[in-house]
Specification:
Shape: elongated
Number of domains: 4
Structural class: alpha/beta
Number of strands: 27
Distance between the termini: 53 Å
Largest sheet: 9 strands, mixed
Radius of gyration: 40 Å
Length: 757
Amino acid sequence: MTVSATSLPRTVLRHGLRYLLGILLITLFLLHVRGDFRLPLLDQLDNMIYDLQLGLTAPRSVDRRIVIADIDEYSLSKLGHWPWRRDVLARIINRLFDDYGVRVVGFDIAFPEPFDPSARRLLGELAETRLRDDPQFQAVWQKLAPGLDTDQALARALQGRPVVLGHIFRQRVRANEPREIGALPPPLRTLDETTRKRLGVPRPQGYTGNLPRLVNATGRGGFFDNPLVDPDGIFRRVPLLQVYQGKLYESLTIAMLRAAHDIPAEQVRLEIVPYNERRDRGVYALEQVIVGKFRIPVDNRGAVLVPYRGPEHSFPYVSMADIHDGSAPRDVLKDAFVLIGTSAPGLKDLRFVPLQKRGYPGVEVHANLLSGMLDGRIKAHPQYLIAYEFLLLIVLGLTLLLALPRLTPLGSTLLTLGLLAGVLGISHLAWTAYDMVLPLASPLALILLMLILHVTIGFFVETRGKRQLAHLFGQYVPPELVDEMSEDPEDYSVEPESRELTVLFSDIRDFTRMSEGMSPPELAELINDFLTPMTGIIHRHRGTIDKYMGDAIMAFWGAPLADPEHARHALEAAWAMIRELDRLNAQFAERGWPRIAIGIGLNTGEMNVGNMGSAFRMAYTVMGDEVNLGSRLEGLTKVYGVNIIVSEATRRAVDDWLYRELDQVRVKGKERPVRIFEPLGPADEVPGAVKSEVRQFRQALEAYRQQDWDGAEVALFNLSQAHPESVLYRLYLDRIAWFRSHPPPEDWDGIFSHSTK
């Protein structure tokens, strides 16, 4: 399809609102992907889609390599309430290895405190106090004490066996809590300073470990806490690594994998790439954790997506009571990875997971993760998918933005369905063939929202005949004012009338000289980039654009929509335009363009407003002496070296601002003198030093008007020394020097006549 040079602008004009809103929508999604801010609904939708994909593709079979040794209700009824004596646990450990031949055991439980039954505690107190000197009691105590130390019995059972103790890292430690409880196992390694600063894994403040004698007996351990639970409380990902006091610690599942395959810590490697050095101050992006021959994809926080096999009981469960008395099935436990945990509701280790939104044993989360590691089923969500998602949104957004306005309703529907199918198909292929989780929420939502935007705007465009007023004034005033006017269209007319208005003139200084050094395309681009934000400021402050005159802007306030605060809104717009100029000049400098300066003149008074022109062309504009005065004031800004000059009428209308009176002048074309002022900002926001400077200049101006040349010159000289960049002070010093040699007449009233526009 070919598009002529004339049809393209017409298309852009016709669908301008559609394009603008479409670009804004695309930009919003891109900012979400970049992380400048997050759209919670998209994050929730991403989680819902992930849960659905996981549920549709889960194998839903039982993995018999991993067995849950369950502290269930039956075990609690047989062996007593939890915690059990440590010699009971020792007997279970001995049975698992000696009788059942398991491969490795991991505890989803921590033992931070010694087990101190009441009998042992009482006998120990007697041995140290009342019966300390009783040799018969002391002899019996010495024989009984080792047998009562059940912690030592458990330590002996752990000695030399592939048993992994669990511990908990605490991300926040309250002021009244101990930071460290028990002991930690040896870390994987101590990190160098650069890696420690840039690795994005969790950094806890404290821990709850195990008894030192138990840690020394086994020498192995891993954390089983999860600081990365999603906001909806669902366990979708768990960290494999955490950094505590500069040392790198492994999770329970990594430690069990190492113990089962005899993998030393040196063979645990992190596959790291620098990510976004400028934006994230050199954060490292983790892509994989390599444990011997096992490659485990992780995200930037060292977390892995748990590959759930199905709902609860995707692994064999064996009661701890059956293991204790030797009645557990041997074929189930032989060579198994055993995780000791609990499914008893009273022990509160139940979680919410994607495939079961009710109590799910926490120990089975670790079992699923271990199963996925053994099979290589861990889904990857690498950092570079941000770039994929970003580019995908741009392609989808621009395709829909440009195509939908040109298509029939049927064509728009078919295009949308085709793009939806394509995105879903690519995601399914990546999930099933490459074990990769592609982002789906943002592209699917963008496609649907772009279609909704297209249909909605199309509906309003078809009914735009109800907004004739918008056609009449839309080229002059911002859409917000048109919407207000459309509520009572009979109140507005283009017929000429007289109103009190405020007019603004703005012009680029030395534009002719500046333009001589630029090519026509560059000059046009500069003007467009200047006028666009300035027009936006005027519109945001309820102004009406009268016309553009090359590099100049003429605008007014108070018509067609009445505005009691027209002077204030005009002054605030002028103030904002000067502030916006600093930002524009920074952008222009980056593009090699010259720095620009503008002058702005404001006047308030009675003006004629309405549709004026000829039979060939009409325009909604303002005319009159007060309009001309506004133009003259703009021209004087360069003479006095200020950015904005307002008339006395504007100053009176906005009396809570601070002004500096510049002069009393006769402008070209007017006999009546006018006082002119420079606005300095809202009075309560102006610094004290500026207020002091204004007072000093007012005193100098009074002396000048009284022809006290010496007093005026001293005051102005001091001001000029303090502010050597001031054109105003030099201007008055030059006038005084002139008047000393050319004294004014005796009836001189201090008015200065300007002969140029």
